[in-house]
Write a structure and sequence with these properties.
single chain, 108 residues, alpha+beta, Alpha-Beta Plaits, five-stranded antiparallel sheet, 3 helices, elongated
């Protein structure tokens, strides 16, 4: 089991909460952290943008990423949800085991 940290920005707190709840209820993530609002700067369709966004961090297993991506694409309001995942080089063994347990996987 390879634990991953998934990062995703949402347009508002309500969207972040809804995504977190859906992913938790589906057993695809072990936990979700919703951060305070941030200011994002980016270029979209040729125009520079500055928007408020709410970061969402999720902990899960690498093998669940395709299903997580499917659900995020279905529920996220952006045309291109900013979804990225990082494989964790280290995770405290009891924490990694808990992630596996909460997401229905075998132990770490």
């Amino acid at each position: 089991m390879t634990p991953v940290r998934i990062l995703l920005n949402c347009p508002d707190r309500e969207t972040a909460r809804a995504l977190a709840a859906s992913l938790l209820d589906a057993g695809l993530v072990a936990c979700a952290n919703i951060y305070p609002e941030i200011e994002s700067h980016y270029v979209w369709q040729g125009a520079r943008q500055v928007e408020s966004e709410v970061p969402l961090a999720l902990k899960s297993r690498a093998d669940l990423l395709p299903e997580i991506e499917r659900m995020v694409r279905e529920l996220h309001p952006y045309d291109v949800p900013p979804l990225v995942a990082q494989h964790l080089d280290f995770a405290h063994r009891p924490f990694a085991d808990w992630i596996a347990e909460m997401t229905g996987g075998a132990g770490a």
